[in-house]
Amino acid sequence: MAWTHDQMAARAARELQDGFYVNLGIRLPTRVANFVNPAIDVWLQSENGMLGIGPYPTEDQVDPDVINAGKKTVTTLPGTSIVGSHDSFAMVRGGKINLSILGALQVSARGDLANWMIPGKMVKGMGGAMDLVAGVGRVIVLMEHVAWRKDGGWDMKILRECTLPLTGLAVVARIITDLCVLDVVEGGLQLVELADGVTRASVEKMTGVALL
Fold first, then answer.
1. CA 155, 158, 163 angle in degrees (round to 5)?
2. Is residue 120 assigned to a domain?
3. Fewer beta carbons within 10 angstroms: which end of the chain, N or C?
4. Contact 185, 209 (CB under 8 A)
5. Which of the following is catalytic: 47, 144, 186, 204?
6. What are phi and psi of 183, to 5 degrees?
7. What is the pLDDT of residues 60-69, one digit of tens each?
8. 47 is catalytic
9. CA atoms 82, 87, 92, 98: torsion sign
């Protein structure tokens, strides 16, 4: 067994703290907006120019002009600000964002992050991840534990050393996957939590570095 994408997003939402300003990366991290604890005051930021992202809209709430960085329609909240991307990146580069939750292609045992390109495949651009890992206080990766191939096989995404072009060196603090939660600590990766029904042995089999 493993966590579903929604369960992964709900687990990541537990990382949010009252008063935080939080950037959500594209694809899987955007789901975190659906699971924010209503008892805390959190402002979700999108690099395309939104501060105050609400959950995904219902069918009658869809507004094609209100989108996140992944071009998915979202909702606004009381107090939401719509700004230019230059203001959005000023928040990031100015150290105003407490936490960023990003996807990844690979993460190393040191917390190195590779998440912007696979050589030989079409690249739309590096996006804002390089700014985010340099300007945000804490970076959490939310991703599937391995990359599944069309032939049914899989490739490890958590490795001793990344093999893909790097976004940042030693920038990741925590990794949340469909199998577990790992912390990047001195000396490697520490197993913090297992998904329901998942064993340590199965995690170790799919991880390219020994766990502390």
1. 75
2. yes
3. N
4. no
5. 47
6. -110, 140
7. 999 998 998 8
8. yes
9. negative
Cα separations in angstroms, 104 against 3, 75, 76 = 17, 25, 27
Sheet holding 106-108, edge to edge: 113-114, 106-108, 158-159
Residue span of the structural domain in which 200 resides: 5-205
Is 212 part of a structural domain of the chain?
A: no
Report how far apart, in Å, the C-alpha atoms of 57 and of each of 49, 77, 101, 175, 198 are: 18, 12, 21, 28, 33
CATH label of the domain that carries residue 147: 3.40.1080.10
What total of structural domains would you count in the chain? 1
Query: What digits encode the pLDDT tens for the residues 35-64?
Result: 999 999 999 999 889 999 998 899 999 999
Cα–Cα distances in Å, from 5 out to 34, 111, 170? 12, 22, 26
For residue 75, being part of any structural domain is answered with: yes
Determine contact, residues 111/159, Cβ cutoff 8 Å.
Answer: no
pTM for this structure? 0.94
Rounded to 10 degrees, what is the CA torsion of 140, 142, 143, 145? 70
Q: Give me the phi and psi of 187, to 5 degrees please.
A: 100, -5
**Contact of 104 with 143, CB cutoff 8 Å:** yes
